[in-house]
């Protein structure tokens, strides 16, 4: 009997180009500002880039030195990448003797004390953003927060929903159908998201300075570098975002209501370790609360269901109001081999993979399966290229290579539909990944280590060289004139918007914070 995926794919086939192509894509890319000697920049956020609080495209993440570039949702991945390139060009021209670091993992760090918190001014919303980051430092350490990544935002086309509703025997497309279907996608991505770490992981090594004052069980690559021989993404391992601090945090994925309830519990339930840190100590806030999560964004996950929030609205409130609007994939390392940290083939493949997850059967995930999925993610991050590696699936062990081939067959079928009347670019993206599974030396993680060995480079030397190469390329070419004009105007306008916010009467911060968390 054909699987639900096969049935849906067959039914959508005649109209696939009209209902599957044309979804919206967006990118969020993080990059550290570093000095010419590779050390973390200590300068404030450049005024030429505008206000980190209110700029629509250029902001900061954890640290004052950690830039974040945000594109709008656009109907073409090519357009998204072109805009991201222009944002990089504009930024590189605004930097004074500084570079954008080309890898996810930082280097030349002087410990937590050398990582400055991002600053957003003295308004309540600005203070809250900085205090939240101070809390992350107390909870997980500031060095961990200097890790960079790329987030891919995606939504299927609106014209997909009425066709899918009819296919599923639903009376009409609705917010409920959207949310149920997207939650199925999210569950399936948790099941097979290890493949993204395997194919696109680009952090197999790390500078010893990352562990200053802490023990590491990694092997020595050279005097300044530690690594694991078969790792793909140390960023997504227990060294980085998938750390033990959130190991006991259970956010259910079996319905949107369950997901929202789980996040709400997490921001309202005290955590003993965080209670010991304290909230307001000696007149200064150390964190926003002593609960499992300070705010919902603290929850680290491979993928998040999202909706654009209104001003002052928490992410879960936005989801409760209108359901899921898009998904945010958070599993991509910054690719050192690509100037903007990501390439078109990756985005093509991710889009086809997400549609595969959307159309495939997605039963509920129980606690036992969730634990197995997390073990798979950790195993692939730490030793994904180990020959013969096996993963857990339905209570048994299966070879990573065999499971990957099965997934790629389904993703390839989706790519064929997306390529109908197109240029074949989705199919080519899948072919590249099939070749990488057959020949793991093609994987970015393997290429990085091979290049470091061939050039006798440390991780720092490799990352520094790539940072300089990309900077010179961006600095040599001006952004598109209309983009440059817009970014110059937005920089000035964002500074004016921050000034206007700070000129407004402010509630006592304690009242502002209480109101933010009290709203349902």
What's the topology here?
Blueprint: H1 4-12, H2 16-19, E1 24-35, E2 58-60, E3 66-70, H3 77-94, E4 98-100, H4 124-140, E5 150-155, H5 160-167, H6 175-192, H7 194-200, E6 205-207, E7 219-222, E8 225-227, H8 256-266, H9 272-277, E9 280-281, E10 284-285, E11 303-306, H10 315-322, E12 326-332, H11 344-359, H12 367-383, E13 390-393, E14 396-399, H13 400-418, H14 425-438, H15 444-455, H16 459-475, H17 481-503, H18 509-518
Antiparallel strand pairs: 1-3, 1-4, 1-5, 2-3, 5-12, 6-8, 7-8, 9-10, 11-12, 13-14
Helix pairs in contact: 6-11, 7-12, 8-10, 11-13, 11-14, 13-14
Structure, described:
It is built from 18 helices and 14 strands. The model has no long low-confidence stretch (mean pLDDT 94). The strands form four sheets. Strands 1, 2, 3, 4, 5, 11 and 12 form a seven-stranded antiparallel β-sheet that branches. A three-stranded antiparallel β-sheet has the order 6-8-7, with no helix packed on it. The protein is globular. The protein has helices at residues 4-12, 16-19, 77-94, 124-140, 160-167, 175-192, 194-200, 256-266, 272-277, 315-322, 344-359, 367-383, 400-418, 425-438, 444-455, 459-475, 481-503, 509-518, and strands at residues 24-35, 58-60, 66-70, 98-100, 150-155, 205-207, 219-222, 225-227, 280-281, 284-285, 303-306, 326-332, 390-393, 396-399. It is 45% helix and 12% strand. Helix 8 packs antiparallel against helix 10. With 520 residues, it is of the alpha+beta class. It has a single domain, classed as Creatine Kinase, Chain A, domain 2 (2-Layer Sandwich). A hairpin with a 2-residue loop joins strand 9 and strand 10 (284-285). The chain starts with a helix and ends with a helix.
